[in-house]
Amino acid sequence: MGDTYSQVYIQIVFAVKFRENQISEQIRDEVEKYICGIFSNKGQKIIALYANPDHIHIFFSYKNFRISIPDLMKIVKVESTNFINDKRFCKTKFAWQEGYGAFSYSKSQVKEVTHYVLNQKEHHQKKTFREEYLEFLNKFEIEYKDEYLFEFFD
Q1: Calpha distance 124→108 (Å, rounded)
Q2: What is the pTM of this model?
């Protein structure tokens, strides 16, 4: 009986509701570890993750096709929201915005994308999240409508 083998690399990007800066430096590490645990429990392997104050980048190796990316994202958002709220990490109720961006890469790009994700703090000193996200959509030639993008307040 044959097994299934794959090598698919995905970067997911999604934002905090109302783009509030709710993921402080004090909680960032715990939030990242919790999200890594969710991915691991679902048979996925995180390569790089960085939680900015108002959005997150998750670069992972998509290994377990028994769970779809939309189902995985729903679980990640719900469980991480509950974790953040249960721990009372934020002064107000925490939530993620609806939607996300999913961008695929080849094996030859893994090192570059990993570096990009792990250097988000430095990257966002030069570029806003809106500029970054629109750049992704255009680079990957993804058609979109402005009214369906994240709420951008910058």
Answers
A1: 24
A2: 0.90
Place of tokens 């995180």: 46
* pLDDT interval class at 23 (50, 70, 90): very high
Q: Which of 144, 66, 61 lies closest to 105, judged by CA?
A: 61
Which residues, in sequence order, are bridge partners of residue 8?
62
**Nearest 5 degrees, angle CA 127-CA 130-CA 136?**
85
> pLDDT by residue (tens digit) across 40-79?
999 999 999 999 999 999 999 998 888 999 999 999 999 9
- 49-61 CB burial, b ≥16 within 10 A, e <16: bbbbbbbbbbbbb
Q: Is 37 left (phi over 0), alpha (psi -120 to 50) or beta?
A: alpha
The alpha carbon of 10 is separated from its chain's Cα centroid by a whole number of angstroms, namely 10
pLDDT band at residue 112 using 50, 70 and 90 as cut-offs: very high
